[in-house]
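Q: What does the assembled structure look like for these inputs?
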Amino acid sequence: MMEKVKINGIRLNKNYVQATHAYSNRQNQSCVPLYQALASDRINLVSMTLSTFGNQSFVSGTIASKHFGQVSCQNGYWNCHKNVCTISIYPHHYQLQPLGFLLCLLGRQKVPFQCLISSNAMLTFVVAQTDCDTVIDILSKNFDLPESHVPFEQKENEMLTQFLKKKYPETRATYVEEKIKTYGITLVSDLHLSSYLFSFDQLAEYGQMIQSRDDKKDKFLFVSAIMATSTQIHLFLVTKKSLDIPAPQACAAELISFHGPHFGDRHSIISRALHCLSEKSIRVLQTGCTGASIGIVLPEGRGKEAKRALKDVFEIP
Amino acid sequence: MSEKQLILVVDDDPDLVEAVSMKLEALEYRVAKAYDGEEAMEKIKEEKPDLIILDVMMPRKNGWEACDEIKNNDDLKDIIVVMLTAVADSVKTTSYTHQDGKTTLADDYIAKPIDLDKLMEIVQDHCE
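A:
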């Protein structure tokens, strides 16, 4: 029996499509990455991970089902899973314990997920909607939740939304910005990016190893995971110092993270961020965005230049 | 600054709640967190905070409703309420009136997107 880990809440959002897109960066310009295709259609990505391996990139993005039909340039390179939902637990406080505990739970209960992404406070993962009730049940039984936590699923109340739109000017605001507003852009240097590729059957074992490193007060700064194949998981972990878990691939890295009002409701934000870095030929190792947070992992030494480039597009208070 | 005063941070964006909480904790405030107006009212009952940072648009109970409930309760009305709002341009005073005539009883506000350092200054000014 694992000891319960304390969190403040679980969040559930349904009715999404998970689209994945693997492409070579050497391919001709006609292969538009998923995030760019969605940006050109003005469609919001609810969450996204991008992983780069040499000249290969792998993007996995979550799109509202109601918007997916509006994507004009879906192509054969995309692999789509319909009827998925996102589940988030919060806050993680960057501690390895809740992360390891979550991975361990998902592994032990054999719950496959499409991807997992960290933000400032949340660990968000994507599962099939048919597994949603089971996962929520597992999480609520195994995590220690306060009695006053908010409902897992925050359904939109259309009547209330319409009422508030009429009553309060805030909801009538139109966000037309020369630069996209943020709460600030943070750059952290001297980090380690460790990459682990393992079978889904080993997920609980890796979760346990990660959880046990919490005793040493190690913390993570960014995490993302994708299903590399139907049976293999690729986990990317950014930490201050190298964890005592053998990683087949590891490198020095820097992390840029930022967070902005209404990032979660608006299209093109990640596309604009990645575009401005690409224009400066700054290679991105990993990207994770979910809700209103974006994390970008860069090779060592490129952080300051990347932050300068992002300042051209994003406003820092 | 009085040490260990309790600040309740209320927003439906856990990432923002966390960012604000970390800043407050660095200034040695105690922090309680809630993710909608209804949960905020429950937290207030558990322990009365010295100041509340209160978002407007939230599920279950929005910030205006929570603020009204606090300020119309004799036991709670002395709690300082700082609203997080995106309508700061129309705000003239700290007890401000909106276009539709609704008056909030909040003590202060800060415009979104928040400048976290400015928000800390506001909190410190009120908690002196």
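The mean pLDDT of chain B is 82.
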